[in-house]
Design a protein that fits this description.
about 170 residues, 6 helices
């Protein structure tokens, strides 16, 4: 996901959300569907991720719209930024849901089902926690603020595993 020039640790995490949110969504379908080859699966999932990321870029880039005259790294402006991130995540929800549904409709390669299931579970947990923290931060929760401002990115490992698998678009973290 592309971001504006404003950069804080919180933004790094949010960028990972937009870019890595879908890496783990590659769901397992029933035995009725024919498994894709790994190159087919990777190509289709990456195409889905690209389409979703393009839509999410618009949502997340809007966070800083109209804020050119304020220092977004100033603690006095922190709550405003968190409120905008919280609103953006709400707006991103339907996009995320559609992307997850589309990737979940793919049948992963035979033998990769457990890997994909684990990636899915890890992604779902990381996104749920990120969303919870962003909502708490927007409400002024100091512990959530501190967590979001840390350099720890809960999506790093998920994105790394996705990229290693070949899901390079899904696992982008720039």
């Amino acid at each position: 996901m592309t971001t504006t020039s404003h950069h804080t640790p919180m933004i790094t995490i949010a960028v990972a959300v937009g870019a890595g949110l879908f890496t783990a969504a590659c769901g397992i379908q029933g035995d009725d569907a024919e498994a894709l080859s790994k190159p087919e699966f990777v190509a289709e999932a990456n195409a889905i991720c690209q389409a979703g990321n393009d839509q999410l870029d618009l949502v997340f880039d809007g966070i800083y719209a109209g804020l050119d005259d304020i220092d977004v790294n100033d603690p006095d402006n922190e709550l405003l930024i968190f409120k905008r991130w919280d609103a953006a995540l709400i707006d991103a929800g339907p996009i995320v849901d559609q992307e997850l549904d589309d990737i979940g409709a793919l049948e992963p390669p035979v033998g990769d089902e457990e890997f994909i299931e684990t990636l899915l579970a890890d992604q779902a947990a990381a996104f749920a926690e990120f969303t919870r923290l962003m909502k708490a931060a927007a409400d002024g929760d100091q512990a959530a603020l501190a967590t979001l401002e840390s350099d720890e990115d809960p999506f790093d490992d998920i994105d790394r595993r996705a990229r290693e698998y070949g899901l390079t678009v899904c696992g982008e973290s720039d």
